[in-house]
Amino acid sequence: MGGTRKQYRMLGGASLLVRTLQVLQASPAIDHIVVAAPESDVDGLTERLGAQDIHKLHALVRGGASRQASVAAALAAVPDGTDIVVVHDAVRPFVPPSCIERVVDTARRGGAASLAVPATDTLRRGRDDVFGETVDRSGLYRMQTPQAFRAAWFREAHRAARAEGYIGTDDVALLQRMGREVTIVAGSPMNIKITTLDDWLLAEALWAMRETNRAEDS
Predict the structure, then answer these.
(1) How many CA atoms lie within 13 A of 202 on its CB side?
(2) Distances from the Cα of 133 to the Cαs of 122, 123, 128, 199, in angstroms?
(3) Angle of the 16-26 helix axis to the 42-51 helix axis, nearest 10
(4) H or E segment to which residue 36 belongs
(5) Exposed (0-12), middle (13-18) or buried (19+): which is 69, by Cβ within 10 Å?
(6) Tell me, what's the pLDDT at 43?
(7) Which pLDDT value is given to residue 95?
(8) Which pLDDT belongs to residue 215?
(9) CB under 8 Å to 8, separation ≥6 — which residues?
(10) Which helix (H) or strand (E) holds 11?
(11) Are β-strands 10-11 and 14-15 bridged in parallel, bridged antiparallel, or unpaired?
(12) How far is it, in rounded angstroms, from Cα 38 to Cα 73?
């Protein structure tokens, strides 16, 4: 989006990162939070998150050069004895609490799970600015986070990926290449990932709507 890094843009008086952490912290399914941040941000961010009373924050670690490396750094700081590890994008502050609980519960029962929503738009391949064949969208999903995994499986998958130089687009890919089945958990259209300026404008509208509803309920 340009300008301020998206996770630090202010939404209703707090950064996107803080808004996302507040949702995770409020969930009874989450016991500890580990944040992976750019190395240059770690010192200042520790102080800022402390001021925001993110009391479930267990560790703030220096991220890596890729998403996968950052997740691996955070995984190394997860407390011993943790059963389920949950990975969530810092810029998804609207994930419904029920989605967090469902994906964690599903991972407890089956070992691995991820939120996803079915693809609903018509899909076509394209090349050189010209449409090609239509792709059958049945059985296709748009991935979301949180994604939740049995901790032992997740560590095994990251070790294997690191040893073999494999880079996946998300953590589900790492589990799948180990032969682990990952269960689909119904996500939510509200669980948007804020990446573009249009996403930001939508986030501001959603936040304003949420605040209006809260005021009317109080």
Answers:
(1) 15
(2) 11, 9, 14, 29
(3) 50
(4) strand 33-37
(5) middle
(6) 84
(7) 97
(8) 82
(9) 15, 16, 17
(10) strand 10-11
(11) antiparallel
(12) 11
Per-residue pLDDT, 142: 96
CA distance 116 to 140: 10
Q: How far is the CA of 87 from the CAs of 1, 130, 137, 176, 217, in angstroms?
A: 23, 37, 26, 16, 32
> What pLDDT, on the 0 to 100 scale, is given for residue 63?
93
pLDDT of residue 137: 94
Per-position DSSP letters for 142-153, written without gaps between them: EEEEEEEEEHHH
Kindly provide the residue ranges of all beta strands, DSSP E only, lying in 100-217, ordered along the sequence. 112-118, 123-127, 130-135, 141-150, 183-186
| Bridge partner residues of 134 (DSSP) | 124
Sign of CA dihedral 167, 169, 172, 178: negative
Tokens for 103?
């994906």
Q: How far apart are CA 38 and CA 32, in angstroms?
A: 20
- Which DSSP string do the residues of 55-117 spell out, in sequence order? TTEEEEEE--SSHHHHHHHHHHTSPTT--EEEE--TT-TT--HHHHHHHHHHHHHHSEEEEEE
| Average pLDDT for runs of 10 along the chain of length 218 | 83 95 97 94 86 92 94 97 97 97 98 97 95 95 98 98 96 97 97 95 94 82
Quote the CA–CA distance of 61 and 122 in Å, as a whole number. Answer: 41
Both tokens of 149, joined, read: 């995994």
pLDDT of the residue at 3: 73
Cβ(51)–Cβ(14) under 8 Å?
Answer: no
